[in-house]
């Protein structure tokens, strides 16, 4: 009798469990660990530089070069479509009045912000910048921010599950590039300057390789644990742990038949 299931942690590119697990390619409810654990089937655990755990969140010090680096994975994205949703507490901005929440590779930068308006810069080579026009955010503030992108369409922004206005800064000069095969940096600033620092605590971070709709964004914003509730036989809290689920043993660190330390 097999007690250890050789399944991915949870979620696959072709997942029939629930919409909240379909196309989920990075999922981390931030919990203290030596690395930032990715509970998606890719298990792309992030290496933490500088940032420290503060309760159930990761604290990024603006005076230091704090960031989390998630390794590149081929097959993470199949095109330009994506959804990013994160809950975090932002305390202040950098000296240029902007911050950076996530960066793909060397360009494709998500969520810089100027003043109280979040900005998505699609690609340095093809331009394309949009910003959230309303409502303005008062810092310090704890928010859930989501952005979706479909092909060459303008991105959509959601603040605490509610769609907000978006305005174009620079018109894109070409088709968007895929984010596949790019390293992901969370809360990476422009080193060694103080520009685009991320003086915040992140509590949750998810990336999908497809664009969720408005009702799905709203549901996730209200319950960030929703995906984990759909696939209980695969999800487990920490790498290498063994727990009983529905009367059977699962190995939470087993991916592709190998134990992840």
List the helices and strands and how they pair.
Blueprint: E1 24-29, E2 35-36, E3 46-49, E4 52-54, E5 57-60, E6 67-70, E7 82-92, E8 100-104, E9 107-114, E10 117-123, E11 127-134, E12 141-149, E13 156-159, E14 162-170, E15 184-186, E16 199-208, H1 214-222, E17 242-245, E18 248-251, E19 254-255, E20 258-259
Antiparallel strand pairs: 1-16, 2-3, 3-6, 4-5, 5-16, 6-15, 7-12, 7-16, 8-9, 8-15, 9-10, 10-11, 11-14, 12-13, 13-14, 17-18, 19-20
- Look up the CATH topology: Jelly Rolls
Largest sheet: 16 strands, antiparallel
Overall number of structural domains = 1
Distance from N terminus to C terminus (CA atoms, Å) equals 25 Å
CATH class: Mainly Beta
The counted number of beta strands is: 20
Strand content: 35-45%
- In N-to-C order, the SSE pattern is EEEEEEEEEEEEEEEEHEEEE
Number of helices: 1
């Amino acid at each position: 009798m097999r007690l250890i299931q050789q399944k991915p942690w949870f979620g696959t590119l072709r997942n029939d469990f629930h919409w909240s697990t379909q196309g989920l390619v990075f999922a981390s409810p931030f919990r203290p660990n030596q690395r930032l654990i990715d509970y998606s089937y890719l298990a792309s655990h992030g290496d933490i530089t500088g940032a420290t755990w503060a309760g159930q969140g990761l604290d990024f010090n603006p005076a230091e070069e704090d960031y989390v680096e998630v390794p590149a994975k081929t097959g993470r994205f199949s095109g330009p479509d994506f959804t990013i949703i994160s809950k975090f507490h932002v305390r202040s901005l950098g000296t240029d009045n902007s911050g950076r929440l996530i960066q793909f590779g060397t360009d494709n930068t998500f969520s810089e912000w100027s003043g109280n308006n979040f900005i998505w810069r699609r690609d340095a080579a093809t331009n394309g910048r949009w910003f959230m026009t309303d409502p303005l955010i008062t810092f310090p503030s704890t928010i859930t921010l989501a952005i979706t992108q479909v092909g060459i369409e303008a991105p959509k922004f959601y603040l605490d599950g509610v769609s907000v206005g978006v305005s174009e800064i620079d018109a894109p000069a070409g088709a968007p590039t895929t984010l596949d095969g790019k390293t992901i940096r969370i809360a990476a600033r422009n080193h060694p300057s103080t520009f685009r620092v991320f003086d915040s605590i992140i509590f949750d971070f998810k990336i999908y390789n497809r664009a969720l709709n408005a009702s799905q964004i709203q549901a996730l914003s209200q319950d960030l644990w929703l995906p984990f509730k759909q696939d209980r036989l695969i999800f487990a809290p920490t790498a290498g742990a063994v727990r009983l689920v529905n009367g059977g043993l699962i190995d939470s660190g087993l991916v592709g038949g190998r134990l992840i330390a």
